[in-house]
C-alpha cells in the first residue's frame, strides 16, 4: 500500500476482512492506525465482531456473523484508509484544575493535525497522584498523598512522567478496543485494578532504566545536600522506557519492549496490541498444559502409592512367613522334648500304664506344641495350590 495514497477498499472487502482477521492484526498488516479502520467501518456501515467472537473462535466454537446491512443513501460504498505517516502517540489532555500552569502535552500523531485521544480515568487519577506531594525513591517519582494511584506499576523519573502517561493512555485505549477490561484485582495485597483480556489477567509494568552512581560524600556533605546519611548511591534516569507484559504467574511468559536508537516505545504500540490480543489464547494453552502436568503428577503419585503399598504388604508377608517358620520350628522342638519326657517317664513300660496325672500332663504339653505350630494353626489355609508371588493371605 502506498503511504500517500492509502488503501482503497469497498464495503464487501472490509466486511470480509473484519470477520476473518482481528483488527489488531489488520493494523500491522495494512500499516494503518486502529482508528482509521474503525472510522472506515462506521462510514460504510460495516459491523465489526466483538472480543467474545474471537474468544469463541480460539476455543473452536462456530459463531454466527452479523449480516452486512444494505447500504443506505448516505452510506459510502468505498473509502481510502490512510496509512500512518508518523508514530501513534496519545495526547494527555491535562485538566486545568489539576495543573493550572502546565500546558497540554502535544505529541506527533497520524494526521497532519494532532489527534487527541481522550484521557482514561485511570491515567487521570495516576497523574494527579504522581504530581501531588511527591518525592524520589531510587530516582522514581513516588507520592506521599493518599490520592488513588491505580497505575502503581509506572516507575519513571519526573522528567519522563508525561511521556509515560501518554504512552500508557495509548496502550489502555488500544487494549479496550480489542476487548480488554479493567476489573478489581482478586489478590488482596494488590488493591489496584487489573487488566483482563477475556478471562486472562495481564500484569503490566512500565519502568525507566535507571543509572546507579556511587556517592563519594562524607556524612557532613550528605547532610548539607539533604541526603540520608546511609544512602550509598544516586539514581539518574536514562530516559529509556521499558514495558513488561506478563501475568504474574505461570500462565504467561514475560514479554518486554524497550526504547532503542532506531525506534521509540511509542512506535511499537501496534505490535504490543497484537500481543495483548493473543494473551488469552496463550493463557489457555498454559493452563491446559499445567492441567495436563498436574494430571500426570497425580497419576505418578497414585502409581507410587500403589507401589509403596505393595512393598509394605510384601514386607508384612515376609515377616509373617519368618514368624510362622520360627513358631513351627519351636513346635517341632517342643514335640521332641515331650516325646523325650514320655520315654523317660515310661522307663521302658507301656504308656498306658502311666498314672492319669502324668498322662494329663503329656496331653497338655502336646496341645501346647500344636498351638505353636503355624501349619496346624491354619497358616496355609489361604494358600492356593498353584505357586503365587504374594505368598499367603494376610487374614491369618
Keywords:
single chain; 396 residues; alpha+beta; six-stranded mixed β-sheet; two-stranded antiparallel ribbon; 9 helices; 15% strand; disordered C terminus
Order of helices and strands: EHHHHEHEEEHEEEHEEHH
- Cα Rg: 42 Å
Largest β-sheet summary: 6 strands, mixed
Assign an overall shape.
elongated
Q: Please give the share of residues in helix.
A: 40-55%
The total strand number stands at: 10
Strand content: 5-15%
Q: What class would the helix/strand composition place it in?
A: alpha+beta
Which whole number gives the mean pLDDT? 81
Number of helices: 9
Question: Gap between N and C termini, in Å?
Answer: 88 Å
- Low-pLDDT ranges: 84-114, 386-396
Task: Give a quick rundown of the structure.
This protein has 396 residues and is an alpha+beta fold.
What does this structure look like?
This protein has 396 residues and is α+β, with helices and mostly antiparallel strands. Among the domains are: 85 residues, no CATH class; 173 residues, no CATH class. Strands 5, 6, 7, 8, 9 and 10 form a 6-stranded mixed beta sheet that branches. The radius of gyration is 42 Å and the shape is elongated. The C terminus is likely disordered.
Amino acid at each position: 500500500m502506498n503511504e500517500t495514497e492509502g488503501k482503497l477498499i469497498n464495503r464487501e472487502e472490509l466486511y470480509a476482512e473484519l470477520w476473518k482477521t482481528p483488527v489488531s492484526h489488520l493494523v500491522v498488516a495494512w500499516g494503518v492506525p486502529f482508528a482509521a479502520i474503525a472510522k472506515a467501518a462506521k462510514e460504510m456501515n460495516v459491523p465489526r465482531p466483538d472480543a467474545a467472537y474471537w474468544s469463541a473462535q480460539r476455543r473452536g466454537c462456530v459463531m454466527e456473523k452479523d449480516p452486512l446491512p444494505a447500504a443506505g443513501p448516505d452510506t459510502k460504498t468505498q473509502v481510502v484508509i490512510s496509512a500512518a505517516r508518523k508514530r501513534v502517540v496519545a495526547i494527555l489532555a491535562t485538566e486545568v484544575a489539576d495543573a493550572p500552569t502546565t500546558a497540554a502535552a502535544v505529541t506527533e500523531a497520524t494526521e497532519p493535525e494532532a489527534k487527541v485521544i481522550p484521557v482514561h480515568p485511570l491515567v487521570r487519577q495516576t497523574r494527579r497522584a504522581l504530581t501531588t506531594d511527591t518525592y524520589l525513591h531510587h530516582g522514581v517519582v513516588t507520592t506521599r498523598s493518599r490520592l488513588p494511584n491505580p497505575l502503581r506499576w509506572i516507575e519513571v523519573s519526573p522528567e519522563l512522567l508525561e511521556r509515560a502517561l501518554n504512552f500508557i493512555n495509548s496502550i489502555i485505549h488500544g487494549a479496550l478496543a480489542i476487548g480488554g477490561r479493567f476489573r478489581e484485582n482478586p489478590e488482596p495485597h494488590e488493591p489496584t485494578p487489573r487488566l483482563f483480556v477475556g478471562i486472562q489477567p495481564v500484569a503490566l509494568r512500565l519502568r525507566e532504566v535507571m543509572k546507579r552512581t556511587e556517592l563519594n560524600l562524607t556524612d557532613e556533605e550528605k547532610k548539607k545536600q539533604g541526603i540520608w546519611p546511609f544512602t550509598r548511591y544516586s539514581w539518574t534516569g536514562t530516559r529509556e522506557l521499558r514495558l513488561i507484559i506478563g501475568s504474574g504467574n505461570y500462565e504467561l511468559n514475560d514479554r518486554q519492549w524497550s526504547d532503542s536508537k532506531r525506534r521509540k516505545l511509542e512506535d511499537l504500540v501496534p505490535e504490543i496490541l497484537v500481543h495483548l490480543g493473543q494473551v488469552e489464547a496463550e493463557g489457555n494453552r498454559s493452563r491446559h498444559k499445567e492441567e495436563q502436568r498436574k494430571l500426570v503428577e497425580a497419576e505418578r503419585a497414585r502409581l507410587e502409592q500403589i507401589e509403596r503399598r505393595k512393598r509394605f504388604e510384601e514386607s508384612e508377608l515376609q515377616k509373617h512367613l519368618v514368624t510362622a517358620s520360627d513358631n513351627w520350628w519351636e513346635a517341632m522342638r517342643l514335640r521332641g522334648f515331650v516325646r523325650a519326657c514320655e520315654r523317660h517317664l515310661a522307663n521302658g513300660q507301656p504308656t498306658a500304664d502311666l498314672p492319669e496325672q502324668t498322662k494329663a500332663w503329656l496331653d497338655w504339653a502336646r496341645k501346647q506344641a500344636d498351638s505353636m505350630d503355624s501349619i496346624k494353626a491354619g497358616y496355609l489355609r489361604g494358600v492356593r495350590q498353584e505357586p503365587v508371588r504374594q505368598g499367603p493371605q494376610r487374614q491369618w
